[in-house]
Design brief:
single chain; alpha+beta; 6-stranded mixed beta sheet; 4-stranded antiparallel beta sheet; 11 helices; globular
């Protein structure tokens, strides 16, 4: 039996979304994980999880499950991965042995709060396939392969950030330099020591009725048109990320909190944000901690001073139904 894992992730600082040739620092949040089990079998079988089953106790249960997991479960993610994995092997001249398996998955990553639960399932499943077929794939290619499952096979809008951190794990500084991306198909990735960080917390909504952040704007179109305000803002996101990376490496973790605050303030000046997400950030700041989105909404991340401030954070977030945790950064 092969058992593999991939973990939730949180964006520490950087671009609000992919596609702007920017920079970002992300961390793995080992508090939540996707788990995949793969065992030899006569037929190639994908076992559905509960969220894949079209069986409900009532209309209310159906409605709640759709709100939580959407209209599709994880089976389609694994089917798409198997197709792309086979394509990759053909492209690379890798001969896969003719043997079948049964694959099943489960995940406790909170849904719809921007922790990259879908890509975690794909990442864990790819790790299982690599072990089952004894295939080695460079990490940069793994991230690209995982991305192609979502973008090419399933038509899901996504970028490399989440896939890179889930493949590399730990803490990673990513520079999606345009020339490097266009010539090599990947960014420049630098692993950073998590011990460089000041105390970091994550706060997330335990019950979120809607999907993560909805942007009612045309930021990407404006960027592609060369809109001065948007282009300059995206450059500023990169500058903040570079400054954060340099401060951490130089041994000045105390600078990170102000940079994270500036990151969110810049984001808020560009995008129309939901009040529920703004409340997450304001709660953290109300007790003196820093706070920004950890993804596209539903989760905040920030730095705090000491245990006394951490207790204040827990109390403040509990008042709005949010939970606070200290991220376990898996290397």
């Amino acid at each position: 039996m092969i058992e593999t894992y991939a973990y939730a992730r949180a964006g520490l600082i950087g671009n609000p979304s992919d596609g702007f040739f920017g920079k970002t620092i992300s961390i793995i949040c080992g508090n939540f994980r996707a788990r995949v089990i793969c065992t030899p079998s006569a037929n190639l079988t994908i076992k559905p999880n509960t969220i894949d089953m079209p069986i409900f106790g009532s209309l209310d249960e159906l409605r709640e499950r759709v709100k939580l997991a959407g209209y599709y479960g994880g089976v389609r993610l694994i089917v798409a991965l198997l197709k792309r994995f086979t394509d990759y092997a053909l492209e690379k001249g890798i001969e896969l042995p003719h043997r079948n398996f049964t694959i099943e998955y489960e995940s406790n990553i909170p849904a719809r709060v921007g922790m990259a639960g879908s890509s975690a399932i794909i990442t864990a499943a790819l790790r299982a396939l690599m072990k089952f077929y004894d295939v080695e794939i460079p990490k940069t290619e793994q991230a690209n392969l995982i991305l192609s499952v979502e973008t090419q096979e399933l038509g899901i809008g996504a970028g490399l950030q989440d896939r890179v951190i889930q493949v590399f794990q730990g803490m990673v500084f990513m520079d999606f330099d345009r020339q490097h991306m266009e010539t090599r198909g990947c960014g420049i990735y630098e692993a950073l020591d998590p011990a460089l960080l000041p105390p970091v917390y994550i706060a997330y909504q335990k019950e979120l009725a809607e999907g993560s952040e909805v942007f009612h704007n045309d930021i990407r179109q404006r960027f592609n048109r060369g809109d001065k305000d948007v282009v300059e803002a995206m450059k500023k996101f990169g500058d903040l990320t570079q400054e954060a990376r340099d401060a951490l490496v130089a041994g000045h973790p105390e600078k990170l909190g102000d940079l994270m605050n500036a990151n969110f303030d810049l984001r808020a000046s560009l995008y129309k944000l939901r009040q529920i997400d703004i409340d997450l950030v304001e709660r953290g700041r109300s007790v003196g901690a820093s706070a920004k989105f950890a993804g596209s909404g539903g989760t905040a991340i920030g730095t705090y001073k000491d245990e006394a401030m951490l207790e204040k954070l827990k109390k403040a977030y509990a008042e709005i139904g949010a939970e606070v945790l200290i991220p376990k950064i898996v290397q």
